[in-house]
């Protein structure tokens, strides 16, 4: 495939505004592209206008290597902050600007093109190379959850996730928990507070208790690659009028967990605080967990990592760094599959540009990763 066509494919993907939806348009685009090269693919419908895409090449024998990329992007935010329209991909100084250029349509495009070029070059693959293009990664790994439950992950021996890593090998990342707590009180006139129950005051007690517990945990537990457990209250709503005692307050918080102190322990800690406060007079708190993604950690000396290092070392005579990140990925759902597998997160672009204004990917980086994916697939499946 010519360089210009590769860039056009990436630009076409960026131009489709898949802000937490409309991913079926990208699934259709890739499926149509694959059809030209006789690559079989299957759409897995999630909801209206949303569909995952699964495709395979290879001889069906031997190992199965997965390539994972998500099709959705986050909202571009204030358009005045962009130098170029976020869904009108623009090239300047060998950088391609647009929402999703880094996170992670360049990674997805690189995987798609790598598969096509392996077919074009009539490469022998003694195994299966499997693309998993997912919906809703940015709002809860929705597509990854669906594909896992439907068994599309169960035959994987290894997986590469194309999130932007600036050519580092990410083998571990934090988990993520979102929770909501509602404090119910009793309304009264502010001149007679004794007749009411102040839902805000009770929530403040709860917030202080949770913050204290999370601070204690962060001091006691850490991971050399991903750091400490972190906790933040990110949304708070309460009260309707300045001279009325509030009868309801709602908070939402986010916790980033680590392998050394996982989700189950954190959920138990929060639940215990809420249960203990509800035993006190006038406290009526309700806790729900809205989002629960596991921390993940793979073997940094796995056969997959060895193959990737070999491929990179042959060209550059150096190894890629092994790192951990705080953000979560589709792996948090995929690891719930019936069969354990090795994984690595490796893709074009810099993670620090994700979700930012004027997001971009360096074109040469994008092109280099295409070649890297091809060589990794050949080495891994044929070794």
Write structural notes for this entry.
The protein has 383 residues and is an alpha+beta fold. The protein folds into 2 domains: 3-173 and 295-382, 3-Layer(aba) Sandwich (Aminopeptidase), CATH 3.40.630; 175-293, Alpha-Beta Plaits (2-Layer Sandwich), CATH 3.30.70. 34% of the residues lie in helices and 28% in strands. The chain has helices at residues 3-15, 23-36, 101-120, 142-149, 199-220, 263-278, 303-316, 331-334, 363-382; strands at 41-47, 50-58, 63-70, 90-92, 95-97, 127-134, 158-161, 169-173, 175-184, 188-189, 222-223, 227-228, 230-238, 244-245, 248-257, 285-293, 296-297, 322-325, 342-345, 360-362. The strands form 6 sheets. Strands 1-2-6-3-7-19 form a 6-stranded mixed beta sheet, sandwiched between helices. Strands 13-15-9-16 form a 4-stranded antiparallel beta sheet, with helices on one face. Strands 4-5-20 form a 3-stranded antiparallel beta sheet. The protein is elongated. The chain starts with a helix and ends with a helix. 44% of the residues are buried. The mean pLDDT is 96.
